[in-house]
From TrEMBL:
Pfam families reported for this sequence: PAP2_3 (PF14378)
Alphabetic keyword roster: Membrane, Transmembrane, Transmembrane helix
The protein, known as: Phosphatase PAP2 family protein
Membrane-spanning ranges: 12-29, 60-80, 87-106, 140-157, 164-181, 187-207
Cellular component, GO, one term: membrane
Coiled coil: none
Inositolphosphotransferase Aur1/Ipt1 domain mapped to chain residues: 60-199
């Protein structure tokens, strides 16, 4: 109990700051809805490799898990590791800012398969529902790749969380694969993962997260 009191005494100001930051995180997550539409110039980055990649509807399961997993990670760090949350939140807003800025000036489009039959399986139906609710724009860089990689990266800060970090890294890789086999993105869009890792390394240095290890 004494340790908890000392922790709260030392970090109360950070929790207040993080409440404001959490609002910024949520607000930045809504920007996507204002940019995922066609613009005057729309680019298609699909290659022969992308056309060769098969459609595997079953990957809609991990694809749809990103949002709950991401917000669990944010909530966990907010409650238990406010300094890590600060860095995570700033990096989250940064990747949203960079990505949505690119969508505005360099809009991209991914062709989707036309041979999926509704009712053929629950996975196909779930994929078609995703297609219906998510326009095929805002592809480069992929926020699915970027945000899953960002969430995984911050688990590596603390040595005691290595098992979770490995699990989250696998999840990020599976998510990146899902974006390809669901035809939500092309291979070029996975640069979002590299952007996320770069922002993590920058945040790690700026916020001196080595003290949290």
């Amino acid at each position: 109990m004494d340790n908890l009191r000392r922790f709260m005494k030392e970090n109360w100001w950070r929790y207040l700051m993080n409440l404001v930051l959490a609002g910024g995180v949520y607000w930045s997550s809504t920007w996507y809805a204002t940019t995922y539409h066609a613009t005057a110039n729309v680019h298609i980055l699909q290659t022969a490799f992308d056309r060769w990649v098969p459609v595997i509807p079953q990957f809609i399961v991990p694809y749809n898990w990103l949002q709950p997993v991401l917000y669990f990670c944010l909530l966990f760090f907010f409650v238990f590791h406010p300094k890590i949350f600060t860095a995570f939140g700033v990096a989250f807003i940064a990747i949203q800012t960079v990505s949505n800025s690119i969508y505005i000036v360099f809009q991209t489009y991914v062709p989707r398969p036309t041979n999926l039959v509704a009712g053929s399986s629950r996975y196909v139906d779930a994929l078609l529902a995703t297609y219906k609710s998510d326009n095929p724009y805002n592809c480069f860089p992929s926020l699915h790749c970027g945000l899953s990689a960002l969430a995984a990266s911050f688990w590596w800060v603390k040595r005691s969380y290595r098992p979770v970090a490995w699990l989250m890294t696998v999840f990020a890789v599976v998510t990146a694969v899902a974006t390809q086999v669901l035809k939500q993105h092309v291979i070029a869009d996975t640069v979002g993962s590299l952007l996320a890792i770069g922002l993590y390394l920058l945040a790690y240095r700026i916020f001196n997260l080595k003290t949290e290890a």
